[in-house]
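Q: Start with the shorter request: fold the first protein.
A: Done. Sequence, then structure:
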Amino acid sequence: MQLYRGIIKQAIDITWKSKYLWFFGLFAALLGNGGEYEILYRALAGNFSEDFFGGFRQIASTGIFSTQGLRNLADLLVTQPISVIIAILVLLIFLALFAFMLWLVNVSQAAMVNNTLAKIDNKKVTFREALDSGMSKFWPVFGFNLVSKMITIVSLSVISLIIILGNNMRSVMSTIVYVFVVILFIPIAMSFSFIVKYGIGYAVISNEKFLAAFQSGWNLFKKNWLISLEMAFILYIINIIIALLFIVVVLVFATPFALLAFLASGLSMTGMFLFIVGLGIIFFFASLIIAGSLVATFQISAWTSLYIELIGKGAKSKLVRMFTR
C-alpha cells in the first residue's frame, strides 16, 4: 500500500496546490473520469443498447435520410433559401464550437499530464506554459482518446447486440452467452483504457510518436497489469467517497435554500421564491462543475504519478508483495 499511499498523497498535493490545473481539469472531465469504470458499469447495466441504438432509431424515425426527406429538403432550399442558409450557418457554428471543445479537452489532458511531471520535479509552471505544452501534444492525445472511445463503443455494441439476440433465445442460453461475452470483452476494453493512459504518458512525457507510444503503453501495461487493476480499484473507492462527501456537502448547503424557499412560498413571495430556487440551482451546478474539475485533476495526476513510478524505479503489486512474504 506504500506505493499507492504515496501516489494518492502526491496527487492530492498537486490538485490542491496547483489550482490553475482546475481549469484544465474542468475540460478534461468531459472525457469522463475513468473510462474503465464507464465500461464496467454500462456493460453490467446492459442499457447501452437502448442508449446507443435508440439514438440511431430516433434519428432514422424522423425520415431525414429517406427519399421523401431529401426531396423536402431540396424543395425548402428552393422556396426558402434564406432560412436554409441560416440553418446551415447555425449548424456550422455548432460544429465549430464542438471542434473547439474537442481541441480544448485534449489539450487540457495533455497539459495536466505534463504539469504533473513538472510538479513532481518541483518545477514552477505558469498557466501559459501549461497551455503551450498541451497544445504541442494535441494530436497524439487526441489519437489515444479516439482509440479508447472506439474500443469502448465497439465492445459495448457487441455486448448490446448479444443482449438483443439473447432476447430471442431461451433464458438460460441467453444468460450463458451474455456472461461469456461480458467476460471476454470487458477485460479487452478495460485493458485498452489502461494502455491509453500509459500511452499518453509516453507521448507527452517521453515524447514518443503515437505508434511507438502505443506499443510502449502496451508493454508497460502487460508488465504491470495487476498494479493497474489495483490502482483503478483504489481510485474507484476514492471516487465513491468523494461522491458521498459531495452529496453530504450539497445537502448541508441546500438546507438554507430549501428553508428560505419554503418561507417565501408560505408568505406568497413569488419573486423571492423564484430567486432563491434559481440561486440554489446555480449553486448546485457550480458545485458539480468544481467537484468534476477536482476529481479529473486528481485522477490524471494519480495515473501520471503511477506512470512515472513504473518507468522509473518500477513497482510491485500489493497482492504480489502479500503472497511473497
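Q: Next, the second protein, separately.
A: Sequence, then structure:
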Amino acid sequence: MNDTEPIVLVDDNEDDIVLTRRALERNQIENPLVIARDGAEALELLLGANGETVKPAMILLDLKLPKVDGLSVLKRLREDTRTSLIPIVVLTSSKQDQDVIAGYALHANSYIHKPVDFDQFSEAIRQIGQYWLHLNEAPPAAA
C-alpha cells in the first residue's frame, strides 16, 4: 500500500470522526481520509451508480449507522467483486456477541471495539494502520 490510497471511514458520529482524524495524524498515517456519514453514502461512494467510485486502501466501518446499517453495508461490499477484497475493519462501540459473529460471518477482516480513552483509541488506530497499510500483503489490483 502507499500513502496516496484513501482510508474510508464510515461513521455518523462527528466526535468519532474527529478522534479518528486526530489519531491518524498523531500516528503519521498520511493516507487521505474520506468520510461517509451513513450507510447509503458509503455504498454510493464505494459502489457508485455513476461509475465514479473511491478505491480505498481500507475501510473503517461503524455498525450503528443511519439509512443503511453497517452489517448491510458490509454484506453489499463483500458481494461486489469491485470491493470484495478491500480490507474492512469493523470499528464500533458494539460489544454484542451477535454483532461480532455477524461481522465475521459477512467476512469483515477485523472487528475492533472502539476504546473510549483517546490514547488507547490512538494506539488502536496506529496498530490498524501499521498492519493493514504496511505489513499486510494486499491482493494485486487486477484481482
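Q: Describe the second briefly.
A: The first helix runs from residue 14 to 26. The longest strand covers residues 88-92.
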